[in-house]
Amino acid sequence: MDHDPTAAVVVRDLRVRRGGGVVFDGLDLEVARGGVTGLMGPSGCGKTTLMRAIVGTQRVQGGGVTVFGQAAGSAGLRHRVAYDTQAASVYSDLTVEQNLRYFARLVGASRKDVGRVLDQVNLRDRAGQRVDTLSGGQASRVSLAVAILGRPELLVLDEPTVGLDPLLREELWSVFHTLVDEGATLIVSSHVMDEALRCDRLLLLRDGRVMADTTPARLLSETGADDPDRAFLALIEREVG
Amino acid sequence: MNLTRTFATSGRVLRQLGHDPRSIVLLLVAPSLLVGLFAWLFTDTSVFDGIGPAILALFPFVVMFLITSVTTLRERRSGTLERLLSTPIGRFDLIFGYAFAFGLAAIVQAFVTVLFAVRVCGLDVEGPLWSLGLVAVVDALLGTALGLLASAFARTEFQAVQFMPLLVFPQIILGGLFMPRDQMPDVLHAISDWLPLSHAIDAVNAVAAGDPAWDVYRPLSIVSAFTVGAVLLASLTLPRRTP
């Protein structure tokens, strides 16, 4: 199989069925190391399934995913890859800090890391509060904080900015870019197309296929659209027409 | 197995319990209240001395079964299990983490209940008290292990609770609480031999009667074998990859 050995993620002929329906029927794609790759597309297009396949929690019917040259989900990768699901997957009956300390011990992060991520997601003053007393946006930031605890090399984030106000979204994107500057590779999914402009690379998914593998600038110039929403619609029209 | 991750998990489970004082009170006080009710009901008869020990074997089992199946189910449904399985933690770290935490809760529960039954209700126990506690802890671990297993087959908390009549009640009915096992119809006696709770009740009755140690440890090791089997089966129900 010919692929770039420096790629962070290589997906080859991936076939996944979920709940009786076909999600992927031979998906191929690559994600280069470094930068933020935006996984864009309407809901139901397979974003979450692809992310689960990359972190190795998705049962697949065929093909495979390799991450940093190893099979997705293998033991050697679990220190290097972190995943944040769409719903805040933290313990709602524990405080923010108790959640972080627990996951820190699992991934071998230090107490210092707990303080660092609290600052990064701007929740230092909520550290002693139970997660079920936080707002939805705060809870999802706790979940994000857990994902960045162990300084993973690949960070897979499923709709991390959904439901956040513009200011917080801005702050989170600056966290993402800091992580990239430190050498991490980020895969961020979103169905809000205007987030596409903040990514370094874009993968547009539709009905379990890669409709475009591009950059924000190229997407706009090739479609002649002035915003990513229209660019996406233009791509669909081009395919259909 | 990694002890850091196992104990981190136990600590986390106990911390969750610590945020729920009502559950702690129920866990510690409810068995004593029910034991007290039995003792009161059968005042001035010898019935309580007959079935009291068996009841002591029952509570840790039932309570831990419920707590474990509901807590584990919550973990499966809240997305934290999927997150955990994408981290370096192993399935056995997780399961033993749970078992240690609930085992510890069971020790405290057994201590309170045994003390209440003997000191307050005047339960007559010939054997050493600590072995009564030991049987209670092994029963609690059996409940934890079966609860872990049951949680795999339930989609909702409601279903998890309904597994109790299915998995627990037959064991109580055939366990020798209502009728000595050797007086049961042959078929039922044979079935009861294959139910772990029967052996737990045998063990606790042996302690109460002051029988030789082997009569306590033989059934207790059978219960332990069931527990280990259920834990192994439960670990198979935690696949990293799910559909």
Automatic annotation (TrEMBL), chain A:
Molecular function GO labels: ATP binding; ATP hydrolysis activity
Entry keywords, A to Z: ATP-binding, Nucleotide-binding
Domain of life: Bacteria
SMART domains associated with the record: AAA
Cross-referenced Gene3D superfamilies: P-loop containing nucleotide triphosphate hydrolases
Keyword rRNA-binding: no
Span of domain ABC transporter: 9-232
PROSITE patterns the record matches: ABC_TRANSPORTER_1, ABC_TRANSPORTER_2
TM spans (from-to): none
Protein name: ABC transporter ATP-binding protein
Organism of this sequence: Nocardiopsis eucommiae
From TrEMBL, chain B:
Single GO cellular component term: ATP-binding cassette (ABC) transporter complex
Stored PROSITE patterns: ABC_TM2 (PS51012)
Residues annotated as domain ABC transmembrane type-2: 14-241
The keyword Membrane appears for this protein: yes
Topological relation to the membrane, as annotated: Multi-pass membrane protein
Annotated compartments: Cell membrane
GO terms for biological process, alphabetical: response to antibiotic
Primary location: membrane
Record-annotated membrane-spanning stretches: 24-42, 54-73, 94-118, 130-153, 160-179, 220-238
Alphabetical list of InterPro entries matching this protein: ABC-2_transporter_component, ABC2_TM, ABC2_TM_bact-type, ABC_2_transport
Entry keywords, A to Z: Antibiotic resistance, Cell membrane, Membrane, Transmembrane, Transmembrane helix, Transport
Source domain of life: Bacteria
A GO MF term: ABC-type transporter activity
Family stated for the protein in its record: Belongs to the ABC-2 integral membrane protein family.
Protein name: Transport permease protein
Species, as recorded: Nocardiopsis eucommiae
